[in-house]
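Human: I would love a firmer grasp of how sequence relates to backbone shape in proteins. Take your time, and here it is.
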Amino acid sequence: MERLYIPDGYKSPQSIKDTEIAIKEVKDFFERALAKALNLTRVSAPLFVRPESGLNDNLNGVERPVSFGIKEQGDAPVEIVHSLAKWKRQALKRYEFTYGEGLYTDMSAIRRDEDTDNIHSLYVDQWDWEKIIHKEERNEETLRIVVERVYLALRKTEKYMAEKYDFIDEILPEQIHFITTQELLDAYPGLSSKEREHEAAKKWGAVFLMQIGDVLSNDEPHDGRAPDYDDWHLNGDILVYYPVLDIALELSSMGIRVDEETLERQLRQRGCEERAKLPFQKALLNGELPYTIGGGIGQSRICMFFMRRAHIGEVQSSIWKPDVVEYAREQGVNLL
């Protein structure tokens, strides 16, 4: 029970049926807004990949993927994706997208090692997107422009939902604030990384926290990032202050992707140079893949935020401990 928090006086504001209707409202509106803002085309994507392809997202490097053998292929193993961060870049080339164009897809994943709580689930659903840029656009200016476009799509979605439902008010600030992880550490040196995020989100309402993955002045990274997709100096997270739970809520992780030089450097830093021999990483090092910017935007996360829910299980169907389900029911919280 220690990982379930229900604010005093909180109850699910809608029935399960009305909640399902509202979920579709959020997803349909935001999906269209995002595609228009970034010139993206929806494509189909895999649920599982071969481990030897190098396409699965290794996240922080310790999470175990769910895997199974394919009977008709001699029980050859495949892994359910953690995300499509690498697959998208390869798909842009294979599908013959050109400069300025991009793709997005509905990604579903199972993260078996996740510690579940109000905002974390074993089931992950997000819009994974990727867009082609020129090499000379691999800079902070490009990153900021794209972040602002994504943020505008989020604000438009909140406005739409606030006009449709009287229990939803607009709380996102007009502008998103940009700050690096080192600047945040300098401002709050005595706090943990999550505590620093909370202070920043509460102060500015919406923050793009930049440069995640590299070691800071305290000899620790702010948070983990795989070394072979984001450039650690040109990435970040969109965090918003969520008053329902009094937390900094991450809605999106995104960034300019590694080029040849950055990939080599980050693989060395993590001590996993052997990945350079995998098909995806090898193609990248050989200059066979386009330069891109991309990210993932949590579908359940934005539904939770825009619908002002206290638990992610109110907007997605997953597996929770029996005592959590029972306690939520007793408190008037409808877990799907």
In short: Residues 16-331 form a domain with the BirA Bifunctional Protein; domain 2 fold (CATH 3.30.930.10). The longest helix spans residues 140-164. The radius of gyration is 20 Å. The chain has one domain: 16-331.
